[in-house]
Design a protein that fits this description.
The chain has 438 residues and is of the alpha/beta class. 49% of the residues lie in helices and 9% in strands. The strands form two sheets. Strands 3-4-5-6-7-8-9-10 form an eight-stranded parallel β-barrel, surrounded by eight helices. The protein has a two-stranded antiparallel ribbon with strand order 1-2. The chain folds into three domains: 33 residues, no CATH class; 319 residues, TIM Barrel (Alpha-Beta Barrel); 59 residues, no CATH class. It is globular and about 85 Å long.
């Protein structure tokens, strides 16, 4: 059954009632899947279509381990870098480079106009972390904010058209004692998680996102906002990976996932940041079991702690392994990670690295038609069709610039091999031609 009128509350509500929404149709076409298959995956919570009903310019995408791996780009101003025009340039560059989601993590200035500009002009999924915005919105210190203040900011972001919100619902007052007892090397490195932890310590109250979770679900149901259950206790270094704090929080996120699905609210689960290579696959499988196959959204993971300036590479290594083992959504990491707010070039490098990781994983998972572009590239290379190679390249501008800068004497080779080119020699040999080398 399909419909063009919105006689449902959320994508999950529609799917469970047998309705195929326009968003499901769009996702099915992109993913080479049937509309019924996408509907059934949404109904089970294994695919999330993050699409606030007020974000009317969105080009819908599905997030799920059996679909193409999606890329998220974190942007936003800070007190030290406060130019919203530059951030908008990054947004448009990110979309042009193939990012499916933008997270506005602004922590300075008048955030609402920028957020509304994103949801009125940007076709990508838009995400936010409302707790970041709370202090800025109310212009009050964290300890003076009430639980109601924090919940009201969630509603504000929903009203502004945001498609998904990261909420650190999984840490409770029990977490305070765990952090003190287990003596993590990096404690809590999640910015949102640290704010909630600090708020609980200063007020003596329970985490409002956990205590008033049912109220949050009503807001998300009303606007069809997906909850990205934030991992406050994600490891910030290799030493803290897969520890008691991380796993216990994951168990709680699994419980909250069930509660969200009972209200037809879509959920994604956020996952680890730093993790040794040999632990990544196991973490993906544990998450899929505990959270019943809900889409997993990971930051990296970064597979070593010693590469500042190159963390887009450490992240891509971990991201490829994570996505091939079941992660659905990769948050990009730039060369500026741990060092500074990324500039436009950092954003490009981070996106390209993440897209390479995602594509490699999609090929390994045998996502329908994922390898088509690689096969086309192989054909173009065999025939020295350089224009076709630029069309197939993930970053054609850079590839073409390198070749132009070091152009060969003959077009049927590159300046590394020249007439020693294996492809050239094989083409001539198989065609019965004389192979001139000198």
């Amino acid at each position: 059954m399909s419909t063009q009128t919105r006689n449902y509350t959320t994508q999950m509500d529609a799917a469970r009632r047998g309705i195929i929404t326009p968003e499901m149709k769009a996702v099915a076409a992109k993913e080479y899947r049937s509309e019924e298959e996408i509907r059934d995956l949404v109904a089970r919570g294994q695919v999330a279509i993050c699409a606030n009903k007020l974000h009317t310019c969105i080009e819908p995408n599905g997030v799920g381990s059996m679909l193409r791996t999606k890329i998220n780009v974190n942007l936003g101003v800070s007190r030290d870098c406060k130019d919203y025009n530059i951030e908008m340039q990054k947004v448009m560059a990110a979309v042009d480079l193939g990012a499916e989601a933008i997270m506005d993590l602004s922590s300075h200035g008048d955030t609402q106009p920028f957020r509304r500009k994103l949801t009125s002009e940007c076709p990508a999924m838009i995400g936010t972390v409302p707790v970041y915005d709370a202090v800025i919105h109310y212009q009050r210190d964290l300890a003076t904010l009430t639980a109601k203040d924090l919940i009201d900011v969630v509603r504000l972001h929903a009203e502004d058209g945001v498609d998904f919100v990261t909420l650190h619902c999984g840490i409770t007052r029990k977490t305070i004692e765990q952090i003190k007892k287990h003596k993590r090397k990096m404690n809590i490195v999640s910015r949102g998680g640290s704010l909630i932890f600090a708020w609980m310590c200063m007020t003596g109250e329970e985490n409002p996102f956990y205590e008033y979770f049912d109220e949050i679900l009503e807001i998300c149901r009303e606007y069809d906002v997906t909850i990205s259950l934030g991992d406050a206790c994600r490891p910030g270094c290799l030493a803290d990976a897969t520890d008691v704090c991380q796993i216990e929080e994951l168990v709680r996120l699994g419980e909250l996932t069930k509660r969200a699905w009972e209200k037809d609210v879509q959920v994604m689960i956020e996952g680890p940041g730093h993790m040794p290579l040999d632990q990544i696959e196991a973490n993906m499988k544990v998450q899929q079991t505990i959270c019943l196959g809900a889409p997993f959204y990971v930051l990296g993971p970064l597979v070593t702690d010693i590469a500042p300036g190159y963390d887009h590479i450490t992240s891509a290594i971990g991201g490829a392994i994570a996505a091939s083992a079941g992660a659905a959504f990769l948050c990009y990491v730039t060369p500026a990670e741990h060092l500074a707010l990324p500039n436009v070039d950092d954003v490009k490098q981070g996106i390209i690295a993440s897209r390479i990781a995602a594509h490699a994983a999609d090929i390994a998972k045998k996502i329908p038609h994922a390898r088509d572009i690689d096969d086309a590239m192989a054909d173009a290379r065999r025939t020295f069709d350089w224009e076709k190679q630029w069309e197939c390249a993930i970053d054609p501008e850079t590839a073409k610039a390198i070749r132009d800068d070091r152009a060969p004497e003959h077009d049927d080779s590159c300046s590394m091999c020249g007439k020693f080119c294996a492809v050239r020699s094989m083409n001539k040999a198989l065609a019965g031609e004389y192979i001139d080398i000198l």
